[in-house]
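Can't attach files on this board, so I'm pasting raw text. These are the components:
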Amino acid sequence: MRDFTQDHRWLSINTATVRKSRGVEVPLTDIIQACAARGIRAISPWRDQVAATGLAQVSKLVKQHGLELSGYCRGGMFPAVGADALKAARDDNRRAVDEARELNAKCLVLVVGGLPGALAGKALHKDIALSRSQVSDGIADLLDYAKTANMPLAIEPLHPMYAADRACINTLEQALDICDALDPGKTGALGVAVDVYHVWWDPKLKQQIERAGSQRLMALHVCDWLTPTTDLLNDRGMMGDGVIDIPLIRGWVEAQGFDGYSEVEIFSASNWWQLDCGEVLDTCITRHRSRV
Amino acid sequence: MRDFTQDHRWLSINTATVRKSRGVEVPLTDIIQACAARGIRAISPWRDQVAATGLAQVSKLVKQHGLELSGYCRGGMFPAVGADALKAARDDNRRAVDEARELNAKCLVLVVGGLPGALAGKALHKDIALSRSQVSDGIADLLDYAKTANMPLAIEPLHPMYAADRACINTLEQALDICDALDPGKTGALGVAVDVYHVWWDPKLKQQIERAGSQRLMALHVCDWLTPTTDLLNDRGMMGDGVIDIPLIRGWVEAQGFDGYSEVEIFSASNWWQLDCGEVLDTCITRHRSRV
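---
Top answer:
Structure tokens for the assembled complex are below.
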């Protein structure tokens, strides 16, 4: 297991972590500069942040600062009702692959979607098996496109509390079943993103990380689970402030040969997004060294 | 699959559902009378509610009204730090068995506990594997006692969002692994409580319900998952108001031979606990007929 205590060369910042500074939206250009100024070598930006700045400008800035992208957030949201909506999801995912390619991301992270309409508050149906089938079909289709672009796809199993509205792939086992079905040869074109927040509770976690192996382990996201957790989406904790044994899980992942970035992804409406962006990044660096 | 549309003979009320009426705590005696007055044949009371009224009084009332107990809530909370705390948990669980026996409950429901201290906001350690091991040991010990009292134990896998503070048994598969280890002969002394709220998301749900079979399926709890869900504990929905395909899951359970009560268990601080207890019970009856 790599020693993180001496430097932060393997720290990546998911840009949602500093999406807001003192409650105010931060432009991606400022986030990139703040990361580069601290010797942070990698980021993982969100599409909406990239779109707000402009893809060409972000691409230029990333190259200028020599930043790597540990991932690109995100493709997915495959389930839909009706051919038009399904095609719109398919087209949008292809654009996400193109953007990830332009930014030279390690992988496109897939948050696969749940029940259509649920995220807006009103599910159009309750057939989660149908959604799961549409997810498999959607990934299969996108995989062909992503292979031609040489852009790996990383399925991110989301915590079961997001099964309805964000992702109906909820365990690493389930994600790996899809990988095995669509990419039996483990070509490196399809794998998983392991976010400790989503999977820490899973009694089969170690077993499934071993099953994944280095070919399937494409990203490692870290943050912490707070007790109590006051919001299902935006109350993630800084590493060390919660109950997740992060070094244990990182050890399992690295034992498989994973040697990529440890990406900090924290959504925190009432705490970290209320602090100064620079202070949050400094804390990420400190905790990366001591608690990851 | 039984037809629920014509009557509510298979409806049970978990008394937490009407714990409060218009925001005010309701004595268990009132809940029992309100249920009996509506022809509801079964309840599942919580220990704190029983203690507040007095076990003897509750026992008398239950007999007087001819009520059955679809379960008794709850034993568990096994993990602890230190021999004294472990023994206290063990002793308390034996008292729970005694109470369940006095009330002639179908089973004692086990919410097994998570990381010690987490429910109070400060986990004493992060070793969920240790907690899981203590849970197995605790159930094994309690099982001997429960067998002499002829009181079946029903492990309730809780949603993974409660892994830290309430239960580190989070899937039906995991619960059944414990059942198979401790009661390989499927004697009827150890099984599971299936609460749709906790398990609806599980891609292996049907498979594991089939694995459980009638010997292990001891209780079926119903409510609904709302989108959005605004609180991790107390924002459960009334059947039909959320995304869970309850009849589908009930069908799977009944296909195994389960012929017990469908127990409504709703924690709802800002909605159902703010309404009148009688109105909530009437809605439970209506929805039991139409949406379960």
